[in-house]
Amino acid sequence: MRPGAVTLDLWGTLLADPPAADDRYRAARLSGFARLLAEAGVPATEEMLDRGYRDSAAFLAQLWLQSRDVPVEDHVRVILLAVDPELPRRLPPETLRALVDAYATPILAAPPALAAGAGAAVEALRSRGHVLGIVSNVMRTPGTTLREVLRRHGLLGQFAHLAFSDECRIRKPDPGIFRRALAALGVPAADAVHVGDDPWLDVAGARAAGMRAIQVGAGPRARFGRRRPHAAIGGLAELPDALARLARRRR
Q: Which of 33, 34, 161, 175 is most buried, judged by most C-beta within 10 A?
């Protein structure tokens, strides 16, 4: 019996870049803020915006420790509070929308590459009848923008459902985000496998939801401790064969 569904992590799994790479867009975000606020007649120094970005990092860190998440509009409001505590209420809606766009979309100027073997692996899984989904935490780039990244790589249409933490308001390793994805896919946890690179967020989170887990990027001699995956692969090119082996073990 083979798995009915396969869900994949995005950062560090389907995309070559790890989650921390999202912060490379900081300068583009803040330069966009400076330009838009100047056009709105709001004086905002580089120091103010830097402080706001740091404040937003602390705000997000506290939420993420609780496996919670928020839309990027909340990130933007925290940054604006460092410029003026009344600013989020004073700005017209169209300026706030433009600020959110400047914050959310810098990744599209140079989208991260797919991980080696990702496209072929996804195509192989679909051809074998697997239902595919994404279960991924976001950093500062929201799920709406990450969908566009996948579209540009020609993969968006391959996934039946995409569960991003900013939209679910839940972050891995909370099993709730996996359960929401499985409910949308219409597949029980016992017939699903999650694939990701992180032993805590992906492996432990998926196992807590009742799924099997495959860890990407783990060498053959990796020590897994209590967060042991059901299989470990060096890269996504090995995924179709790893899934086939899991299926044989369940017969």
A: 33
Express each pLDDT in 156-215 by its tens digit.
Answer: 999 999 999 999 999 999 999 999 999 999 999 999 999 999 999 999 999 999 999 999
Q: Which residues have CB under 8 Å from 207's CB, separation 6+?
A: 213, 227
Question: How big is the CA angle at 59 (ends 209 and 13), to the nearest 5 degrees?
Answer: 45
Report yes or no on whether pTM surpasses 0.85: yes
- Among all chains, which residue has been given the structure tokens 């992590």? 9
Domains of the chain, by residue range, sit at 5-17+112-250, 20-109
The 3-state DSSP class for residue 63 equals helix
Of the CATH numbers 3.30.365.10, 3.30.1490.20, 3.40.190.10, 3.40.50.1000, which one belongs to the domain with range 5-17+112-250?
3.40.50.1000
